[in-house]
Amino acid sequence: YEMLRSLVGSEMCIRDRMKRFLPIFFFVFATIGQTEAAWDAGSFFSCNAINPKPEVIIKSSYGRLVHDLSKSKAEINAIHNKNPHVKEPRNTVVGLASFRMPTRIKVSGQRRKINETYSCILPTKVEIEIGLNDPVIYVAKEYPRQSCGFSQVIRHEQTHQRINLLTLEYFMPIFDKALRKAIYDVRAVKVYTKDNNNFKKGLSKLNEYYYARLTPILEEFEKARAKEQQKLDNITSYRRDWEICNEFEKEHPEKKIPYKI
């Protein structure tokens, strides 16, 4: 009986202590919870909740076409081997249609502060420039200007440049759609407010993201362009050009000009 009374007394003592300490415990727990909630509010905030609706400008360009007839066959082959955009199937290149294709994306933006820890960098204007720069047609100077061979080579290379331009015009709406979707998918970038370079870093991240989204489209453009060029660069096409000159010179032997290529 004494043991039972002792156990009951101990239990009542424990309950009394719990009644006194539980309010303090819950107060501390609630305070910690509120502090964590306040801290997490900024860390879990997404800048994509803000729709900046930036101005989007997409420009295409095709440079002034230049005909360079001063290069030798050896010089044209050297240019061909250095240019990633032009690959003739022939071992010896006597004519060439070259160009450069730089792509530039410029992002302008503004900073919007969330709290003392985080800020959002929002694009206000996105400009993209895609073009075929410095288009040049080369014809080996070994060809006499008045020869049928010269006429056929220069016509062939002009057709190459025309294909380049038409392929660019076809892909411009695709570039436009891809960029606008990229801007919609990632509307802003979250950075640390106290970082002095946060604005520059945020614009750089947006720029990188837009380039990443456009790169597969640029690769598709290059594949489509190369495929169309292959329709012109093949043995059948070369043989047809040779036969045209051969027939012409048979009919007009007085206009045949001897040359060695």
Number of strands: 6
Q: What would you report as the Rg, rounded to the nearest angstrom?
A: 35 Å
Question: Segments where pLDDT lies below 50 for 5+ residues?
Answer: 1-8, 24-40
Principal-axes geometry comes out as elongated
Tell me about the biggest sheet?
6 strands, mixed
How much is the average pLDDT? Answer: 82
Strand content: 15-25%
Q: Quickly count the helices.
A: 5
Polypeptide structure, described:
This protein has 5 helices and 6 strands. By secondary structure, it is an alpha/beta fold. The chain is elongated. The relative contact order is 0.14.
How do the helices and strands line up, and which of them pair or pack?
Blueprint: H1 2-43, E1 55-62, E2 66-68, H2 73-82, E3 95-100, E4 103-113, E5 118-139, H3 148-185, E6 189-192, H4 198-230, H5 235-251
Parallel strand pairs: 1-5, 2-5
Antiparallel strand pairs: 3-5, 4-5, 5-6
Summarize the structure.
The protein is of the alpha/beta class. It has helices at 2-43, 73-82, 148-185, 198-230, 235-251, and strands at residues 55-62, 66-68, 95-100, 103-113, 118-139, 189-192.
State the main characteristics.
261 residues, alpha/beta, 5 helices, 6 strands
